[in-house]
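Hello, quick one for you while I still have it in my head. No rush at all, and the record is pasted right below.
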Amino acid sequence: MKNLVLYASRNNTTEETVLRIKSHANDPIDIYKISETGDLNLSLYSHIYIGTGIYGGRLPYSVTSYVKKNKVVLRQKPVTFFIHGLDSQDKYTKIVDQGVSRYLEGNPYESIYLGGKLDISAQSFIIKMILIEIANKNHFDPNNADTRKEEAISELIKRF
């Protein structure tokens, strides 16, 4: 059986990672934006990967609602979330748990933090202020907001 990669990407960071997975995959995989899955039969896949960024301290609604809608099948499959964000791994693991753990009871899903990237100049004033605060807290330049962890991304890609 094939692996499945589902993703949601607002600022293209997650989509960039998915395209890298696709270009380096040794085995066949199917890739879909979560918003374009339709009635995808998840039982046909051996492992399901879900990629997303964190926005406003939460998983996107499209991700949590997809997991909720498909919880019966997802509880029976290995599930790995790969997360992009500018803050810390501990914080994002907790955000994933808050968003999906109640739907995946009994399934020890995995979360992989990949760091993040964002063009702050394209954001609204409020988002810029939040990102500047995160940048200051984590000691990186808010005008060059790129905290991606290349080693973690490479390790994820090797799974395919």
Remarks:
- The chain has a mean pLDDT of 89.
